[in-house]
Amino acid sequence: MLASDIETADSFLQQARGLMFRRSLADDAALVFQFDDTAKRDVHMLFVPFGIDAIWLVDNEVQATKRLKPWLGLGRESADTLIEVPAGAADGVDVGDTVEIVG
Questions:
Q1: Distance CA 58, CA 44 (A)
Q2: In the predicted model, is pLDDT for residue 87 greater than 80?
Q3: What's this model's pTM, rounded to 2 decimal places?
Q4: How far apart are CA 70 and CA 47, in angstroms?
């Protein structure tokens, strides 16, 4: 289990804001972005003062993972779902793994 406290960024504004301006992300938390189609999805760490792991999925299959540094991190991969978890939470998650979002 990657997280037990799942927040979904449903609106355009929630997706644009992401984790910006938050002080932290709880160890058991995840922010999930679900999209209607598969496309290149950017993640930036501007105004995010803590590291995260980003997981890009297509049809629940991991396409890529990346550890992003506070303030300066940047990632871009194809996905229909993007998950952001605290740095280290995605250790052991590999390309080709299946991730299910339950809740």
A1: 20
A2: yes
A3: 0.96
A4: 8
Structural class in CATH, domain 5-86: mainly beta
Contacts of 53 (CB under 8 A, 6+ apart): 65, 66, 67, 68, 84, 85, 86, 87, 88, 89, 90, 91, 93
**What strands, in cross-sheet order, belong to the sheet with 29-44?**
5-8, 29-44, 74-86, 52-58, 61-68
What tens digit of pLDDT does each residue of 11-67 get?
999 999 999 999 999 999 999 999 999 999 999 999 999 999 999 999 999 999 999
User: Quick check: 90 and 82 in contact, CB under 8 A?
Assistant: no
Contacts with 92 (C-beta within 8 Å, 6 or more apart), sequence order: none
